[in-house]
Structure formats: C-alpha cells, structure tokens
C-alpha cells in the first residue's frame, strides 16, 4: 500500500508509509553513527514540496531540518529529546 500522506525512509533502507508518532520515534531511536545516520520524511511523488530530516550527529544529538519550498520555509535545529522531535514533526506533518 502506498503512502497516503507521507513516507519515512532511513539510510539503511527502512521504509514506513504514513508513520505514526511512535513509529517515527522508533526510526529516530534506531539511528546510529555508522550506517543508519538519518531518516527523511516527505510526501509521495517525484518532486515533493516539503520534507523533514533527522540526522544523528557524532555527539549523540540530532539535527532536525524542516523545509517547505513553496512556503519558503526552512528551519534547522539541534535537539536531544527523541520524544519531542517525533511529536513536533508529527504536528508539522499534519499541517502540510
């Protein structure tokens, strides 16, 4: 079944269509600094209007990027709380 709203893909090949907040948390929790350093969430299609990514930094913090091209929105933050990241991204996705 294809994603209805958005999908999440990790560097190591995990893919989840329309991930819940809990699923997004688990993807973030599974990141490591060797071969699974990021997760990208975007709507289906060849040229998505927006995306979000979470990358694990070498110091254990997470770089969170949100970008919406049509709205000229770009935000880059560094966070430590996986719960907060998953919750805030889920809310942000719902407003897209």
Would you mind describing this structure in some detail?
The chain has 96 residues and is α+β, with helices and mostly antiparallel strands. The chain has helices at residues 21-29, 82-94, and strands spanning 7-10, 15-17, 38-42, 50-56, 62-68, 73-79. The protein has a six-stranded antiparallel sheet with strand order 2-1-3-4-5-6, covered by helices on one side. Strand 4 (50-56) and strand 5 form a beta hairpin. Helix 1 (21-29) crosses helix 2 (82-94). The chain starts with 6 loop residues before the first strand and ends with a helix.
Summarize the structure.
The chain is of the alpha+beta class and 96 residues long.
Structural class from helices and strands?
alpha+beta
Q: Record the strand order, biggest sheet.
A: 2-1-3-4-5-6
Instruction: Tell me the number of strands.
Output: 6
Q: How would a crystallographer describe the biggest sheet?
A: 6 strands, antiparallel
Proportion of β residues? 25-35%
How large is the radius of gyration? 12 Å
Total DSSP helices: 2
Uncertain stretches of 5 or more adjacent residues: none
User: How do the SSEs run, as a string of H and E?
Assistant: EEHEEEEH
Distance between the termini: 21 Å
What number is the mean pLDDT?
A: 94
Helix content: 10-25%
Please tell me what the overall shape is.
Answer: globular
């Amino acid at each position: 079944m294809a994603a209805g709203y958005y999908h999440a893909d990790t560097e190591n090949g995990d893919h989840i269509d329309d991930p819940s907040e809990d699923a997004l948390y688990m993807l973030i929790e599974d990141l490591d600094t060797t071969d699974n350093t990021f997760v990208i969430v975007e709507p289906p299609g060849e040229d998505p209007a927006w995306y979000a990514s979470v990358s694990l930094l070498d110091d254990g913090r997470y770089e969170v990027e949100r970008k919406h091209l049509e709205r000229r929105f770009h935000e880059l933050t560094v966070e430590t709380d996986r719960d907060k990241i998953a919750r805030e991204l889920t809310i942000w996705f719902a407003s897209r």
